[in-house]
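Rotation project, supervised by the postdoc (A.L.). Task for the rotation student: set up a whole-complex structure prediction and record inputs and outputs verbatim in this book. Inputs entered:
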Amino acid sequence: MTTTYRVDKFVDAKGQTCPMPVLMLAKAFKELASGQILAISATDPGSKADVSAWAEKTGNTLLEMVEEAGVFTFYLKKV
Amino acid sequence: MTVDTLPTTTDQLLRDRVDTLVNERLEQLVTERVTEQVAAAMKKDPAKNKVAIIASKGTLDMAYPPLILASAAAAMGEDVEIFFTFYGLDIVKKGGAAQLKVAPIANPAMPVPMPNIVGMLPGMTPMATWMMKSQFFAKHHVAPLEQLLQECVDLGVKLIACQMTMDVMGIKAEELIEGVEVGGAATFINFANDAHITLFI
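Outputs recorded:
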């Protein structure tokens, strides 16, 4: 079930491998204000586990992960 | 029932009842107190969100794990320090990260199957390195070591070069990339002492 989010920032990490998607995510998140939403797209299958681990560790919310044609798009909300 | 046995029985009954009550209450109190103490101790966990890594190897494959883990940990908000010692110093030498090689000799896990003895032939090390970089890493878009090292610096990972091994291997402080500090065993232990994660690579 895909919800439409008002995305404040988009990060394209397609083609990047571990640990780059997480590094790009962390860097982009620094520029967000609390409550804002970031979307990040990645093709590295490892990012499925890594992005949720990052969210769990940093206390930010992983709203949803959408998989489409080998591209994983994560929607995250800053606490 | 005779009159003279009555007090003893009553006394005995009373004592049993009191014992049972005291035991029950004691157990309740001890459990409460222990639970409180454990919770307080857990809250006072002296370990911090710190990751302490020792990078001791100077081959391409062994330089990746410390840099990948350090940058990822820093991106997750951890306070990270890498202590470079022995061959690991090559990672933080100016231009060093780009020069690291794959050792094909005595490495039975090379992606291209070949008799291990072939690894000893002259030119095999640069060839294995070239193959790893151009055929495997490039194809899978693996970030080069230089980039990961820069990411570590940008994310505030503390890089410490081991003084003793620098002296042994004739490496001067000015040969190291900017931002690397020089320290010894005590420097690392002091940092790792309250780190949740400590790795020797």
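Student's summary: The radius of gyration of chain B is 31 Å.
Supervisor addendum: Chain B has a mean pLDDT of 90.
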